[in-house]
Amino acid sequence: MQRRFQQVDVFSTVPYKGNPLGVVLDGDGLEDEAMRNYSLWSNLSEATFILPARHVQADYRFRIFARDREYPFAGHPALGTARAWLQAGGVPRDPKQLIAECGAGLVPIRIDGELLSFASPPATRTGAIGRRELAEMLQILGIGTEQVVDAQWVDNGPGWAAILLQDAQQVLEISAQAPQRSGRWKIGVLGALPPSTPGGGFEVRALTIENGAVREDPVTGSLNGAAAQWLIDAGHAAAPLVNRQGAKAGRDGEVHLEMADGQLWVGGATNVLIEGSIDL
Q1: End-to-end Cα separation, the chain, in angstroms
Q2: N or C of the chain: less Cβ packing under 10 Å?
Q3: Share of the chain above pLDDT 70, in %
C-alpha cells in the first residue's frame, strides 16, 4: 500500500547537515513488524509513524522505531515528525504549540517558524553511574578517569548515560571501540565549548555500542535535553545555551536549550528535504 512519506533534516540550518528522519504520515493499520522492517531497511537512526491521537488533548500520535527497537520518546523524531505533520497540512489547536502523543505520554512542541522546540520529558533514570559500569564506558571511549568532570544516568527513553569531560576538544578526540563482550551502551559525552563560541554550551557526541559495532548519532535531542537538565541542576551550566553536535559525523548540528517557567525546552531547525510515497 502506498503511504505518504517525508524525510526531514533536524537540528541544522544547513541542508543535509542535520539528523535525517523518515516519517510515514499514514501509519494507521501498519503492523509492528512492518514498522520495524522499514526502520531496519532505511538505516536511519530512527523512523516514525503518525497515527490518530488517542488522548483528547493530542493533535496526533506517533511511534518511534530505532532499527529493531521501539522508543517511548526521542528528541529529533519528536521535532521531525512535528515538522512533517505541519507541512502535510496538520493544523494544531494552538497555532503556537502542538501536542504530540507518544509512548512517553504527551509532548508539547512550540512552533516558532522553522524552529521547533519540545518540552524535555523528565528522566526515568538518574543518579550516579556505578563504578564498574563507568569503568566499562571509559574503556570503550578510550579515556581515563582523570578526564572525567562528572557522570550520571540521564535516561529519558533511549537509555542515555552522560559523561562530562573537561572541554570540547577532549570530546572531539574520542575514538570509541566496541568491547569484546556483548552488550549495549548508549553513551553521551559532553565538554564545554570555548567561551568565545556564540551561545556557549557544549560539544556533544552520542554513541551507541551494540552487537560489536559503534554507531554515532549525528544530532540527538533526547540526550541534549536530559544532559542539559542534569548540567543545569548540578551547577555545570546555565540556560539559555546552544550545544554543538555532529562534527565527527560530518554534520553541523545546533541544539537550542532554554528554560521557561521551570520547563526545559529543546529546539532546532527542521526542514523537509524529501516528499513522496512509500510502499508499506
Answers
A1: 5
A2: N
A3: 100
Radius of gyration of the chain (CA): 18
Q: Which residue has 548515560 as its cell numbers?
A: 161
Here the cell at position 264 is 526545559
Q: CA 94, CA 59: separation in Å to the nearest integer?
A: 10
What CA–CA distances, in Å, run from 33 to 6, 67, 174? 20, 11, 36
What are 222's three cell numbers? 533526547
Q: Classify residue 155 by its DSSP letter.
A: B
| Residues ≥6 apart with Cβ < 8 Å to 3 | 24, 25, 26, 27, 277, 278, 279, 280
DSSP code, position 125? B
User: Three-state SS across 150-172?
Assistant: EEEECECCCCCEEEEECCHHHHH
Q: What cell numbers appear for 69 in the block?
A: 527497537
Amino acid, single-letter form, for residue 46 = E
Lookup: cell for 58: 493530542
Question: Phi and psi (nearest 5°) for 82?
Answer: -60, -45
Which burial class, exposed, middle or buried, applies to 33 when counting CB atoms under 10 A from its CB (0-12, 13-18, 19+)?
Answer: exposed
pLDDT in tens, 124-141: 899 999 999 999 999 999
CA distances from 215 to 39, 43, 58, 212 (A): 15, 11, 33, 10
Which three cell numbers mark 5?
A: 512519506
Instruction: Give the pLDDT band of residue 198 (cuts 50, 70, 90).
Output: confident
8-state DSSP, 158: S
